[in-house]
Amino acid sequence: MLIYDLQNLAGERKYYALYQHIKEDIVSGVVKPGDKLPSKRALAAHLGVSTVTVEYAYRLLIDEGYIYARERSGYYVCQLQVMASPPAGQREPLHPLPEEPPIPENSHFPYSLWFKTLRHVMSEHGQRLVSRSPNQGCAVLRNAIAAYLLRYRGMYAQPEQIIVGSGSEQLYETVVRMLGNDRIYGIESPSYGQIQAVYQGAGAQVEMLPMGPEGIISAALTMSKAQVLHVTPFHSYPSGVTAPAAKRYEYLQWAAQLGRYIVEDDFDSEFFMPGKPLESLYSMDKSGSVIYLNTFSKSLAPSMRMGYMILPPALLSVYAQRAGMYSCSVPVLEQYALAEFLNKGYFEQHLNRERRRNREV
Known about the structure:
By secondary structure, the protein is an alpha/beta fold. It has helices spanning 11-28, 40-47, 51-63, 111-125, 139-153, 168-179, 193-201, 218-223, 245-255, 281-284, 316-322, 332-343, 346-360, and strands spanning 36-37, 67-70, 74-77, 162-165, 184-189, 205-212, 215-216, 228-231, 261-265, 290-295, 307-310.
């Protein structure tokens, strides 16, 4: 007969403790496959508990596949392929991970304004914030981004061209899904390491194109077999190179051939010091060959895993067919909060404050 001490447990916990004891005996081999368990009444009397406690424990064991009931015969242990594991007493204690580092003292993120915006959005939109986001992102944020780009950057894009994602790396993957991993992707050398890692991780072939003082070396670009060119025209990392107008037109001339595209990674461009950021390749493009990417991780905070890309109109149907079925991974609450942050001018105020601080350093 099974022997377990359940007397010191509260009533609602006894059935679960009994279930755990019997399961451990089955897994450890104390009770063998095919063994018959005591009847509910007999086990209840033996352990000094109610038959309801035993019934609940047996029912849970049946639901999880440890035992089965045979009509008019009783309860039997199932045949299991159990992997050997150390007894519970021999397990190592949990090793907590170290806490995240404290917020840097020079962090200038406008916390109070952001949390004020969150509270207002929650009170204003309520239940809408727990609904599922459209795959391309919420209309309220796409509208706000389009208005901000026109107002602050002089960039014209219809909201339907804007796709919201959780940062640059997810958007890189979306580009590969859309354009295909059978193309060769040319990227700057050196460049941000995750660009190469994401493209190769998505199965695409990467060609490294050496950088000169103004951007990718012209001869390397001419000889390249790439069909997609990923460039960071403003302040490329880690070289720090900003491509002048002549180099930007050279990139656009390269992309003007049928079937070629440029992925313009405009990370860090909001902090251009002399004034408004340089004109983007997207704004200069006349052939519909530039896919524009940007993120709020640098301009707001690293924890803001929100970015966006602008597709040329001709690629909208391609996106819908090949990548439009993937869900947007940015929470609706954060999308609505960022939309309000943009619409009320808080984001531009933050950028202006940061640029003033940078000038003073």
